[in-house]
Amino acid sequence: MEAFGLLLHGFAVLLTGKTLVLMMIGLVLGIFVGVLPGLGGPNGVAILLPLTFTMDPTSAIVMLSCIYWGALFGGAITSILFNIPGEAWSVATTFDGYPMAQQGRAAEALTAAFTSSFIGSLVAVLLITFLAPMISSFALRFGPPEFFAVYLLTFCSFVGLGREARHKTVISMSLGLLLAGIGMDTVSGQLRMTFGTAELLRGINFLVAVIGLFGISEILLTMEERLALRGHAAHISLRVVLSVWRDLPRYWVTLLRSSFIGCWLGITPGGAIAASFMGYNLAKRFAKEPESFGKGRIEGVFAPETAAHASGTSALLPMLALGIPGSGTAAILLGGLMVWGLNPGPLLFVEHKDFVWGLIASMYLGNVVGLVLVLTTVPVFASILRVPFAAVAPMIVVSCAIGAYAIQNAMFDIWLMLGFGVVGYVFKKIGIPLAPFTLALVLGNRAEDAFRLSMIGSGGDLKVFWSNGLVGSITTLALLLLFWPLIEKLLARAGRPRRARPAPL
Amino acid sequence: MKAACTAAALLVVSPAAAGWEPTKPVEIVVAAGAGGASDQMARMMQAAIQKNNLMKQPMVVSLKGGASGAEALMYMKSSEGDPNKVLIAYSLIYMLPLSAKIPFDWRELTPVSVIALDQFVLWDNAAGPKTVKEFVQAAKAASAPFKMGGTGSKREDHVLTVFLEQKTGAKFSYLPYKSGGEAATQLVGNHTESNVNNPSENLEVWRAGQVRPLCVFDKERISYTSKVTETQSWHDIPTCKEEGLDIQYLMLRAMFLPGKVTSEQQAFYVELFQKVTQTPEYKDYMEKQALKPVFLSGKDMLKFLEEDGQLNKSLMTEAGFVAK
Amino acid sequence: MTDTDLEIVVEDPTAPEEDSPSLVGTRTVEIVVSIALLLLAVTLGYDNWRTGISWDSTGPEPGYFPFYLSVILAGGSLYGLIAALTSQDRTSDTFVTRAQARRVLAVFVPTLLFCLATQFLGLYVASFLLIAGFMRAIGKIALWKSLLTAFAFTAIMFVTFDVAFDVIMPKGPLEAVLGR
Q: What's CA C40's distance to the chain center, in Å?
């Protein structure tokens, strides 16, 4: 139990008045940037990084990681209240979180999101505490074929799930993959589908598309249906909080599954985005009534949030231990470490024990304090819904525009956002699902790169995806998931005669 | 008209130091992703400027690594006349317009100063061959071509790989990763046999004893003699020429302003970055990352850029990477 | 901001009854969307074909995946087109009724104007105009409340983004006059 002693030492480093104050400041700032459109975790941390240049490394990293926690918590707020995912990994949260808010269950949805973020991160921090050295060597086993297999797994967990007509899912996914390919192709260094324009050179930014598809189109739909954002959220939320918590044990399978997916994808830099989608899809796939997902089911909030935050947190591990950032925010923190003269890498754990364990201890504290902070502010956020729609709608439009612009400082992106708003509106109305589109847009490029790197490495031999136990089992798992509905049917047929259970009518 | 403006400006300018000064936060535009060598350098300068109070306005790092850095180039090009943006450039300013037909020419920007030169080192896994000779032999003998990791396609790392093939006769398959850090970990994980990373990109895994530097692509050895690992310093790495592999390549790290800025604005930044090169943060950074400290501005810089641009162009042409 | 006891339901007093006539059917929209997607697929497919779609010794060329994806997209939209054209149900569902379309346009047009205004007047002026105008014209909220809310929101955004966090938004002539 060496880790435990070191952790206690870490707490001792932390528990000074000054550090605690910094922590609170960091959390509040973090929630703030998390809620603001277009800022979110990575940008928020990047912007606030210079604030910490004059601090000593431990205080600085404590503050930064608290900003990070705050931003993680804050990101869920806009997704649930306005259907605007501030971060890529919050997209899956909107699927059920926003319908819940529409049904007047905003406080419940927010509590669910915060609680599951907390659980996900906690599991990941525990993992970091006790398994750090072992896991970092596991991450090294990931080469291009392994990465591709993970992306394939994410895609496969998606296909064949929707209620929508098959051809519409196909249209949605292929359109997303196509748009993802616009711009520079990393593997060949060539431009494609840019038609000679400078604006398309950058490619289509995922967040810009998402802000339009979800944020803007939702306003159009709300207006059309004369839906009021009815503010049922004014209950004193302690009751809601407690009732959500009371129900938690019922969802232990979902929470555990999502935590596992999150940790796994976080340390094998597959990323929080893949994790949140996969968490959601698997919860849906193994649910008794998958049709009820997307209509305001609390599990639909638990699953992606737990996975996203487990993964966001465990992404710090490869960053510290190997110097590979598993997420955008981790990459910025990496930059911060360099500024303070700490070089992340295998030796960091040996040479800067104080720092590493101080950071890990601050993850525990920051997470707990952050949860309390956000839960007490739920009523404040939920009360936003009581502002007249005629005032909220234009503010959301402005926020969306700011968000879209801030990502790449490009006016073109505001127009792109508007275009995607219309596309989102029309697609939703004729039943083309948006989820496969967003997933394809965000992972399409990486999946293609990983595939092509694998092909270069193997000289064009597809057997590389079964070349060792690790990649082989992920690929096989992916294919199993793809054909799961079929397999399930076969199993059911084979199993029925033996089972004494009466056949469902 | 322009003359009148300059004259007017001269009237306002009081002796030497005072002159134009930024009135808005200054953006350092990084043509690469987060955590890469350019980003680290930008953050070092941000910290150096802030800690030493070299400028009143804050400096913000803005990452524009989209389209392998082309995003940053187009951004600078379209910001003509805006003195609040500085690009931290490297050899992509020559290579990208050639390989991907990006409508860009560094002459459209205003050169400020060259602040460092970056080295390239041939690395292999610590369990792999110990010298260049053994490495080349192993590469030739291997049944499947050796995998060489690098950053981007048809860029520095790729060019070096092609020349390595030409000089040794061994075959390599080049794997373009998104960043040097990724190339480093992939080498450690044995997914590639070698890479040609900059020192900074492989520093930590070298210190951990996971990779081995075989030779440095320069005329002379790196000057830093303090120990980096338990037994070796940067100076202990032989040059590739010493090892019988006559390839040299150094990459510039330089600052540019957008086009059509005034000479006062240019002068301000020349002075600013000159001051940066005298800070302890800069010196420390140079040594740690094994960069060659240089400072060129004005005519010297232009001459350097012209020559360097020519050299890169001929390398790219020879490697067959120029798009038709 | 505004009184919290205001009714939140969006009520457009001029809106006709719910049985407002259908403006366009879902089938028609599906046909239009399918054709648009088909055209997009053909354009992108052609561009990728030019880029190179073969599978050479080092794996697929840059245009390989996008090309086949555009083929799949074309296939999907063609299927959608045929399905929509041959659908038995001639009296298909309503896509939007006239009343709905009017309400949607009531947000869409201001949003479009807002984007245009951002391009020429800068984001902050545009956002002030949008919020004040929308609240007044659509929400029928008192003029002073609308102006005050719009100003407060815009000012908060300006302070947060431009001043506190150095995230520079597009500016127009007004800011130039004020020296920002």
A: 19
